[in-house]
Design brief:
- The protein is 60% helix and 12% strand.
- The protein has 180 residues and is of the alpha/beta class.
- Strands 1-2-3 form a three-stranded parallel sheet, covered by helices on one side.
- The longest helix is centred in the middle third of the chain and has 54 residues.
- 17% of the residues are buried.
- The mean pLDDT is 88.
Length: 180
């Protein structure tokens, strides 16, 4: 059995409050991470293999006077990235639903265009018939561009982001006093 790689992130902050969004009205337990901290952590994790074990060490320059912040930081990071994974999963489901709807519309439109191209034989003279037939055929196939883009390309980044956020939601997190 292949051993999963372990990757470490060393995050250095002056104080605990730097990790959290100062505009978030809730106290630390379900608090949003600071946007810069979130981007830094997520960017680091995106470059790693998806089967990696992630370890995050937060180095605090000013250790809080009340208790050990390790549990608070761990819970905040796990909650935040687990919640974000669910948000992105919802976004992926909406995108795939849009793709299915677009596909149905596109196939219906393609069918109408192909039927109209075929029917134009009786209505339009020969030279113009070829142009009309080809134009309607191309127009019908172009209508399938968006669903194909969704099903071939657009879902990949969202699926990757879900994997990254889930991995961060399970990361081993610890807090230590920063060494000068």
């Amino acid at each position: 059995m292949k051993k999963r790689p372990i990757h470490h992130l060393q995050l250095r902050v002056r104080e605990l409050g730097q990790l959290f969004n100062s505009l978030d009205p809730s106290p630390f337990l379900n608090k949003d991470l600071d946007r810069e901290a979130e981007v830094f952590i997520e960017t680091w994790a995106q470059g790693l293999p998806s089967d990696s074990h992630l370890h995050i060490t937060v180095h605090l320059q000013h250790w809080p006077t009340e208790g050990d912040p390790a549990a608070l930081i761990t819970e905040a990071i796990h909650n935040y990235f687990s919640y974000k994974a669910e948000l992105v999963r919802g976004e992926l489901h909406r995108l795939l639903r849009e793709g299915r709807t677009s596909l149905l519309i596109g196939i219906s439109f393609l069918t109408v265009c192909l039927l109209a191209a075929d029917a134009s034989k009786q209505i339009i003279p020969d030279t113009h018939f070829t142009v009309a037939r080809e134009g309607l055929t191309i127009l019908g196939w172009v209508a399938l561009w968006r669903p194909l883009q969704i099903f071939l390309y657009d879902w990949w980044p969202l699926a990757r982001k879900i994997r990254v956020c889930r991995a961060l939601g399970r990361a081993v997190v610890r807090a230590v006093t920063a060494q000068p």
